[in-house]
């Protein structure tokens, strides 16, 4: 399955079972370990690839954005879900491509955490009943095209800033599923920069 182009962040740090550490306090994983990519999508713009029979997939989680939570607090009301959080697991077998759709070496975890990225992802959905300790359920990346998002201090943030709750996710070692299922992506890009090549698969 293929996502549209979308923006988000990589989480390359060990899971904190205590829940007390901030993102930056968590230890950086080895570059050979599994990492995750997280994106927040406006709830009215969720692509069909994250739906099952017209409804949100169980791995696409609705939530209130930081902006909505702040507005709700100021207005003394309960926040409403206005975005959907999607996370992708990336193992050692994933193939990496640059913004020109050329194969590239996997960046180090320090490099991945240093930027926000536009990505397009070819992934496999692993259902809970097919999961095992070495290959848990969720969205597993087969191929990923990345392009760092240039930060402009004079411009507004292009994407919702993820908080520690978005980043803090369990990391498990293990091989990726072997099958690649590729479908046509939705035409509307989600918060991505135009002018980048399409993936070569």
Describe what this molecule looks like in 3D.
By secondary structure, this protein is mainly beta. The chain is built from 3 helices and 10 strands; from the N terminus they run E-E-E-E-E-H-E-E-E-H-E-E-H. The protein has helices at residues 66-74, 109-113, 164-167; strands at 6-11, 35-42, 51-52, 55-56, 60-63, 83-90, 95-97, 103-104, 117-126, 138-148. The strands form 2 sheets. A 5-stranded mixed beta barrel has the order 1-2-6-10-9. Strands 3-4 form a two-stranded antiparallel sheet. The N and C termini lie close together (11 Å).
List keywords for this structure.
201 residues; mainly beta; 5-stranded mixed beta barrel; 28% strand
Mind sketching the topology for me?
Elements: E1 6-11, E2 35-42, E3 51-52, E4 55-56, E5 60-63, H1 66-74, E6 83-90, E7 95-97, E8 103-104, H2 109-113, E9 117-126, E10 138-148, H3 164-167
Parallel strand pairs: 6-10, 7-10
Antiparallel strand pairs: 1-2, 1-9, 2-6, 3-4, 5-6, 7-8, 9-10
Give the low-confidence spans. Answer: 153-195
Structural domains: how many: 1
End-to-end gap: 11 Å
Counting copies of identical and different chains, the oligomeric state is single chain
What pattern of helices and strands is seen along the backbone?
EEEEEHEEEHEEH
Q: Give a count of the beta strands, DSSP E runs of length 2 or more.
A: 10
Query: Could you say which overall geometry the principal axes of the C-alpha atoms support?
Result: globular
* DSSP strand content: 25-35%
What Rg is obtained from the alpha carbons, in whole angstroms? 17 Å
Mean pLDDT score: 79
For the biggest β-sheet, the strand order reads 1-2-6-10-9
Amount of helix: under 10%
Instruction: Summarize the main sheet.
Output: 5 strands, mixed, barrel
Structural class: mainly beta
Alpha plus pi helix count? 3
């Amino acid at each position: 399955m293929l996502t549209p182009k979308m923006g988000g962040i990589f989480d390359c740090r060990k899971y904190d079972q205590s829940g007390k550490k901030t993102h930056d306090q968590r230890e950086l994983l080895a570059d050979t370990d599994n990492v995750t990519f997280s994106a927040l999508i406006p709830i009215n713009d969720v692509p069909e690839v994250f739906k099952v029979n017209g409804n949100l997939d169980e791995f696409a989680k609705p939530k209130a954005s930081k902006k909505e939570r702040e507005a709700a607090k100021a207005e003394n009301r309960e926040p409403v879900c206005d975005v959907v959080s999607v996370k992708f697991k990336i193992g050692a077998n994933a193939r990496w491509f640059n913004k020109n759709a050329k194969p590239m070496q996997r960046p180090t975890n320090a490099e991945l955490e240093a930027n926000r990225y536009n990505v397009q992802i070819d992934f496999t959905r692993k259902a809970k009943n097919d999961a095992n300790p070495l290959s848990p359920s969720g969205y597993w990346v087969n191929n990923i095209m990345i392009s760092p998002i240039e930060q402009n201090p004079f411009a507004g943030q292009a994407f919702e800033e993820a908080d520690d709750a978005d980043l803090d996710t369990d990391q498990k070692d293990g091989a990726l599923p072997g099958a690649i299922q590729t479908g046509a992506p939705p035409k509307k890009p989600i918060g991505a920069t135009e002018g980048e090549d399409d993936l070569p698969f």
